[in-house]
Design brief:
The complex is a heterodimer.
Chain A lengths: L2 E5 L2 E3 L5 E8 L7 E7 L5 E7 L6 E3 L7 E6 L4 E6 L8 E8 L4 E4 L3 E5 L2
Parallel strand pairs in A: 2-11
Antiparallel strand pairs in A: 1-3, 3-8, 4-5, 4-9, 5-6, 7-8, 9-10, 9-11
Chain B lengths: L3 E4 L2 E3 L6 E7 L8 E6 L6 E5 L3 E2 L7 E6 L2 E6 L9 E6 L11 E4 L1
Classes of the chains: A mainly beta, B mainly beta.
Chain lengths: ~120, ~110
């Protein structure tokens, strides 16, 4: 069955970096784009970034462009989100989600990132 | 950026009743690329509807989506206890792929 498993979250100080991973299984990973979405606890969903199935195109929300970098390794069925210059406002649960026709048809359970001094 | 406004913010209903949730876009959604997601506490969102009206795999037919352009609706024809959750609309026609603020469907 389709599975997406995020990892790499934790507590980090403001200004530091963190790298999240999204490990995929149960489908042909290299055929699908992957998005990152975050959610502040108790709040709504915010789209962050997307990478095309072949890694040839990436897109970012204004709130993270220039600080976050999305990448993928199709040989490892994984997508990564490198997060730099973190602030308290980046505290959230981070989800990866799969896309083929544009909608986000499968989501991982998320990994929690807490930015605190 | 397309802003999606969902209403109402909270909808209080009983099992067996009909729920109608609204999502209004600040500009026309390209090709009606509008999705609806359900999220229960402690869980990831789940895709219900894509392309404004197409049910995702395994979604019961009591869920239906309609609308086009800037006005979209999610209808749950007869509420089951497991349907009480938060529902989000999202447009995926143009970047940034924005979400609405959500509608909480409560008993």
């Amino acid at each position: 069955q389709v599975q997406l498993v995020e990892s790499g979250g934790g507590v980090v100080q403001p200004g530091r970096s963190l790298r999240l991973s999204c490990a995929a299984s149960g489908f042909t990973f290299s055929n699908y784009g992957i998005h990152w979405v975050r959610q502040v606890p108790g709040k709504g969903l915010e789209w962050l970034a997307m990478i095309r199935y072949d890694g040839g195109k990436t897109m970012y929300a204004d709130s993270v462009r220039g600080r976050f970098i999305i990448s993928r390794d199709n040989s490892k069925n994984s997508v990564f989100l490198q997060m730099n210059s973190l602030t308290v406002a980046d505290t959230a649960r981070y989800y990866c989600a799969r896309t083929f026709t544009g909608d986000f048809d499968y989501w991982g359970q998320g990994t929690l990132v807490t930015v605190s001094s | 950026e397309i802003v999606l406004t969902q209403s109402p913010g909270t909808l209080s209903l009983s099992p067996g009743e009909r729920a109608t949730l609204s999502c209004r876009a600040s500009q026309s959604v390209i090709s009606n690329y509008l999705a609806w997601y359900q999220q229960k506490p402690g869980q990831a969102p789940r895709l219900l509807i894509s392309g404004a009206s197409r049910r995702a795999t395994g979604i019961p037919d009591r869920f239906s989506g309609s609308g086009s352009g800037t006005d979209f609706t999610l209808t749950v024809s007869r509420l089951e206890p497991e349907d009480f959750a938060v529902y989000y609309c999202q447009q995926y026609g143009s970047s940034p792929f924005t979400f609405g603020g959500g509608t909480k469907l409560e008993i």
